[in-house]
Amino acid sequence: MITYHTFDAALLEQVREIYAAEGWNAYLGDDEKLRRAFERSLYILGAFDGETLVGFVRCVGDGEHILLVQDLIVSPVYQRQGIGTRLFRSVWEKYADVRMFQVVTDIHDPVDNHFYQSFGMKKLAEGDMVAYFR
Question: What CATH superfamily is the domain 2-127?
Answer without folding.
Answer: Gcn5-related N-acetyltransferase (GNAT) (3.40.630.30)
